Amino acid sequence: MRFWKFVLRRKKSLHYINVRKESLNKIRIAVFGYGGVGKTSIIKRYLFNVFEENYKRTIEDDYTQVIKYRKQIFFINILDMAGSYQFPAMRKLAIETCHGFLLVYSIDNKKSFEEVKRLLKIIIEIKGRNDFPILLIGNKEDLKTRVVSKEEARQLVENLGPRAEYLETSSRYNTNIDLSFKSIIRLIDEEKIETFKEKTKNIENTDTQIRAKTASIKNVTKKNCNIRERKYGSINIRSFLNSREENVYRL
Ligand SMILES: Nc1nc2c(ncn2[C@@H]2O[C@H](COP(=O)(O)OP(=O)(O)OP(=O)(O)O)[C@@H](O)[C@H]2O)c(=O)[nH]1
Ligand SMILES: [Mg+2]
Question: How does it sit in the membrane (predicted)?
Answer without folding.
Answer: Lipid-anchor
